[in-house]
Amino acid sequence: MTRRTSLGVTCLLAVALGALPAAARDAGAAASIDGPYVFLQDGKREQLRVRRNDQGVVEATRSALAGAEVEVEVDSAGAHRFEVPLRKAHPRGATHFPMPSRLLVASDLEGQFDAFTSLMQHNGVLDARLHWRFGRGHLVLVGDLVDRGPHVLPLLWLVYRMEAEARAAGGAVHYVLGNHEQMLLTGQTRYQHPKYLETLRLTGQAPQALWDEHSELGRWLRSKPVLLRVGDYLFMHGGLSPEALALRPTLDEVDRLAATSLTRDPRELTDARAKAVIRGPLGVLWYRGLAMDMPGIPRATPAQVQQVLQHFGVRHLVIGHTLVEHVGSDYGGAVLRVDVGHAAGTREALLIERGKAFRVDASGQRGALEQAVNAD
Asked: Cβ of 40: how many Cβ atoms within 10 Å?
């Protein structure tokens, strides 16, 4: 095996699958396509790709990227292939937007590329070639697009492209980070699909290196919020605990705390407010008290939910993070929950149109929101 991973050098890494233990061969087979990972250093871009050739050998190549776009190939049933124009910078965006006439919300896609595209196409967000067709509508993704599933890279690249196309059409894509994005950016691999573990083994890269400040997708993810307000709706992946609310954080402060602490080693994090509001089990990424009782963390009361609403001046909270059988409402409609089992075939989203909220599915059918029921 030849292993060279420095920027500016084209490299080839190959392992014959027949020489590997069965578990490694299975991982290698899963790694038939991975990438592209795009890196920027000293003003030059390179791409890292992993493929399995006709001889059953997994190859990882790193080469200069000549143009300003990358081609993404998806080894899923849909077999999509699409181009993604790259952007020069990823500034942090606003955390407060007026309510559009149409707003679609989904979460916890976890690398399920075909589930995502089917849901988006049948609800008028994407066309047959995966281009934005939602006009001035807004799409909110409430975290955990990464980990577990086999198509994390293409899903992120598609959302990256959708964001630019939506902006050009007068609409918007909002990506609110979840706990698994935080895990990805800090090098935690225990929930990653075998194909991504095989990429790490092949390249000898530390997990963080694929998502650091030199990585295109890593820089892009670092620009995203963990708390977002659109109209009268406040979006977060997990929830806001009474303990975090007691610190009276503002939207802007939460965004600043996320920007400075999200990827820090927790052993080096000294900001008590960041620990409480962002990183800890009671912070916006991890808190489950809006959905269930946890050991030492009781479920929030209706009065505590009202305190969150009043503090931020909104009427509804929208969360993912904890599975429900169907997209639905809780706390008398004050909390809307959108984490469903996309991988298991429950492909649903929340549609808010002209002030009314609906559950929509991957066939485009609408239904009334019912009481959210936690999935087993």
From this structure: 17
Give which of 75, 47, 12 is closest to 203, Cα–Cα: 12
Partners of residue 359 on adjacent β-strands:
350, 367
Q: Which CA distances in Å does 298 have to 204, 247, 273, 301?
A: 43, 19, 21, 9
Residues sharing a CB contact under 8 Å with residue 269, sequence separation 6 or more, in sequence order: 261, 275, 279
Radius of gyration of the chain (CA): 21
Condensed to tens digits (0 to 9), the pLDDT of residues 55-68 reads: 778 889 999 998 89
Mean pLDDT, the chain, whole residue set: 90
Q: Which helix (H) or strand (E) holds 305?
A: helix 302-312
Determine contact, residues 60/202, Cβ cutoff 8 Å.
yes
CA distance 262 to 258: 5
Q: How far apart are CA 144 and CA 165, in angstroms?
A: 22
pLDDT in tens, 233-289: 999 999 999 999 999 999 999 999 999 999 987 777 778 899 899 988 999 999 999
Residue 116, Ramachandran bin (φ over 0: left; ψ between -120 and 50: alpha; else beta): alpha
Give residues with Cβ within 8 angstroms of 186, minimum separation 6: 208, 263, 265
Query: Which ranges of 123-250 does DSSP label H, i.e. alpha helix?
Result: 152-168, 179-185, 194-203, 216-222, 242-245
Map residue 289 onto helix, strand or coil.
coil
| 156 contact partners, CB below 8 Å, separation of at least 6 | 145, 146, 217, 221
* Single pTM value for the model: 0.91
**Omega within 30 of 0 (cis) for the link into 302:** no
Reported as a pLDDT band with limits 50, 70 and 90, residue 25 is very low
